[in-house]
Amino acid sequence: MGSCDICGKDTKLFRAKIEGTMMKVCRDCSKFGKVIGEVKIAIKDTARQKVATIYAQEEEEIVEEVVPDYSTKLLKARQKKKMDQMDFARFVAEKESVVSKLETGSLKPSLKLARKLQNRLGIKLIQVVKEEKFELESGTGKDFTLGDFIKKKK
């Protein structure tokens, strides 16, 4: 039992990834994201303080993301084809302004656009990242902070 991060309802909680953020939510609010697992809370009484440990049952999560050097790869792919930005934009079926922003790094492509460019150009723009699971402990007896729920990427 705990308090939902979205609606505040005091009920059984689930860990869910909602818009890229791991949250503790009730069953009703879990529909807004991907449920990772059930939150189990074990409370130990000590002479001085209560220590709460949160256990999240989850599997190793695999996430796809755009490679950090996408802009360089796109620029090199265009130069290799000996095209200017206008011709290259037509080739990949995108606006010239989008191609320009992608090459300068001021626009990060969505996974859908990265897949399209990757398939059209024969370059790798998407990488797979595994997020490790770990156990969190808070020995203060106080409420948890957002930092307690951040996942580390491998």
- The value of Rg in angstroms is 22 Å
The number of distinct helices, counting runs of at least 4 residues, comes to 4
**Secondary structure tally: strands:** 9
Helix content: 25-40%
- State the secondary-structure class: alpha+beta
Q: What would the principal axes of the Cα set say about the shape?
A: elongated
Compact summary:
The protein contains four helices and nine strands; from the N terminus they run βββββββααααββ. The chain has helices at 70-80, 85-92, 96-104, 111-121, and strands at residues 2-3, 10-11, 14-18, 21-25, 34-45, 50-56, 61-66, 126-131, 136-138. Helix 2 (85-92) crosses helix 3 (96-104).
Written description of the protein model:
The chain is elongated. The two termini are 31 Å apart. The chain has helices at residues 70-80, 85-92, 96-104, 111-121; strands at residues 2-3, 10-11, 14-18, 21-25, 34-45, 50-56, 61-66, 126-131, 136-138. The protein folds into 2 domains: 2-60 and 133-149, no CATH class; 64-128, 434 Repressor (Amino-terminal Domain) (Orthogonal Bundle). It is α+β, with helices and mostly antiparallel strands and 154 residues long. The chain has 4 helices and 9 strands.
